Amino acid sequence: MSLLRIYCQLLDEAQRCEWVCIKNDHEPITGEGPLEEQLVDLLQCTRDTRAGHVRLILPATQVLLTRTRLPGTARHRTSAMLAFAIEEETLREPDANQVSWIGNTGDDDVLAVFDKKRLQHWLDVLGAAGIRVDEIGCETLLLPWVAGEWSLAWDGREGFVRIGELEGAATDCGNRASPPLSLQLMLEEAATHGARPASIALYTMVPAEQLAGEPILTPDIDAWQRELGVAIRLEGDWNWRKGSLDANVNLLQERKRWRVFSGLMARLRLTAWIVGGALVLHAIALVVDWTLLANEQRALRQHMESRFRAIFPDAVAVVDPALQMRRKLAEARHSAGVSDSSDFLPMIEMAAVSLKELAPGSLRAITYENTRMTLELVALDEAAMRHVVARLRESGLNVDVSPVPAGMGTGVVVINLRAS
Fold this sequence. Notes:
Elements: E1 3-8, E2 16-22, E3 29-34, H1 35-48, E4 54-58, E5 64-68, H2 79-85, H3 87-90, E6 97-105, E7 108-115, H4 116-128, E8 135-138, E9 149-154, E10 159-162, E11 168-170, H5 181-192, E12 199-204, H6 221-228, E13 231-237, H7 254-267, H8 269-311, H9 321-335, H10 344-355, E14 363-369, E15 372-378, H11 382-394, E16 397-402, E17 412-419
Parallel strand pairs: 1-4, 4-8, 9-12, 12-13
Antiparallel strand pairs: 1-2, 2-3, 5-7, 6-7, 9-10, 10-11, 14-15, 15-17, 16-17
Helix pairs in contact: 8-9
């Protein structure tokens, strides 16, 4: 089998990638560097393999594998509809996520969630160079696994664990004497469901920043076993290049469904015409509705602009009457010695009330600039995070949970606040 694997860090602004080209009866060809600089070599590899099979590999930390229970027909819905089924778990706008149904575990459905916009950018860059991506895989599901046992990949600080055929997760930080806290919590949760593994197979990985020839920091097996209460055995070194060529799950199964749907349309021509006619009528109705809404929006804006000019006749230009009215109101309050809800003191007071139930040290930093406040929180689980967001919104603040910038560390949550 001939295969080109590209390991892409979706959150890396420099768009660095690693890749390996595997050919029958030949030594693998490898490379790494910024994506733009690797396109020539990648294109040459796809031509040399003839079959041109290309698979993107996403890091374990950038793919969420989650279980849920969907209606029988919902699993074949689009990514946008599946995203609403796990909206509370992701804490992001559903449209920001690519969600794919990848299979079943017992009675539950397993969904894969990752960043849609950043992935599409990688696909666009590769497609513009003539490289067609056939599959998208997850590093977690490349790790070897057997029933009744978990597999853990560890680089001396953090890693990821595969707990089932379609399940796994990234771990938080640990050290040589102490295993990751998230791994302990996962074992405790598995015990409550009677699914605690008999042992854990530990694979060591070389961190990206580690120099060649430096020893891999293996954990103290005895100390880890005492902490976790489960047997651990070393299985040697491993990385995504060593994953089985066949043992992989395609995270973008929608393409296959569209091809099947296309064939069905050819066979059911009459039905296709009926559906097409209904879609045309629906599109016309949407255009009419959008036109009416646009006219209503335009009339409302004109009314707001006329009200603003009536109150402030000296205004030179009116670009956003609602925003400008709020700013004028804030200026009037400041002139009268009254604070505005967007000032630092009222906002910090509302934030303090909402965060008072958190443990000491959970708030790492606060920044305020131009009516906007940013909070950096640490050591929060998902339930606590949802509770904090709900309390902030009840206090009258607009809340936006931002992705954690690269280099800020794991376990950090960034919350942007703005007065309503």
